[in-house]
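Progress report, Aim 2. The chain analyzed during this reporting quarter is listed below.
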Amino acid sequence: MKRKPYPKYKPSGVEWLGDVPENWQVKRLKTSALCWVSNVDKVPSEDELPVRLCNYTDVYYHDHILPDMGLMETTATADEIRRFGLQKGDVLITKDSEEWSDIAVPALVIEAAPDLVCGYHLAIIRAQPEALLGDYLLRAFQSCAINQQFQVAASGVTRYGLPKSSIGDAWLPIPPPSEQRAIAAFLDRETGRIDTLIAKKRELVERLKEKRTALISHTVTHGLPPEAAAKAGLPVNPPFKPSGIEWLGDIPKHWDVMALKWRSRCRSGDAIATDDVNPELTPERGVPVIGGNGVMGYCDSSNCEHPVLVIGRVGALCGNVHFIKPPAWITDNALVMCTDAATFSQKYLAAVLRTRNLNELADKTAQPLITGTRIRNERIPVPALPEQAAIAAYLAAETTKLDTLATKIEEAVERLREFRAALITAAVTGKIDVRNEVAS
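Predicted structure tokens for the chain:
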């Protein structure tokens, strides 16, 4: 639906804002609101009063703040409660962040309570009710055009902070209160519709991921479905036998079960190379470096001609299984699986190991770790090589279909998010007139 602009405009006097509706004002935020920064930490103390603390993540992940939304229970002094207690209509923003793009993310206090207090790393903005409404101010902070003032003002290198003075000095288009209410109501309605659609699409993506995982797990433990098996010249609906392995369950009767250690070895802290590349590689040579939780400078290369199977062995994500394309350098935090080509298809083996969830094998310490010995002690199902190849090819084709569909949905979600942001900016900067639309 194409929305109409206002009948008349005037210069705002602010270059990035351009023209604004004739009856709007453009003022610095401090002329219409009070701003202050909280210093209430999370640490409880016996000589303080119990409070519900609104923290950084509560603001970052929610548009609205309510006392009953599962806020942290801690303590604060009577003076802190007086200074940083929240009122209905207050807008909170993220004052500090590791990313400049996360500066000044807002949330609106919908309902107050005597023990509801603002936490550290947040700023409180309390509008003067006769001039500025919190509902409208929330949407103004969500506008990309207005929010960029705060991102530019934030300073830092590894962590960014927004000075209090920069909050109050920001320029803000201010419609009459009746129009602020109309804009807020319009955006509540429209963003609610968009958010509902986004949630449904993300739910669909999650179901696709679950289907993908189930497909891989069932295929590498039970074999191909009848139609695919017949097409590959393999047994259709074969009889099953107990595998003797709890996570694996029953497997086709003609499959073997084998410990990896009989047909594999692991290595790390070494270089891997193709036949035509000098194997004496070091990280200084500019090759990708493979670590425990991921890879710097490489993409998953399961479709390359000779992929190498790598497993992370140290860190929170240890047990993740990657394919890499040589040349590359493997740190001590990752393992290269070297297997007998006459026994295992690398792509089939990767699918089995991902199904196994190797993270369960890690020592759960401050720094989780999986040893190569534990991985090699794993017993896995082993079909004949032609069946492994058929399973790998089938999974590649089917997961590609699911991944393509999921990617299209994610792209649609991103377009909806962009439309949502553009709609908010257009409304709070007066580029569209929503007064009659709300009234109707």
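The chain has a mean pLDDT of 89. The chain has two domains: 25-174, 205-387. These observations will guide the mutagenesis work planned for the next reporting period.
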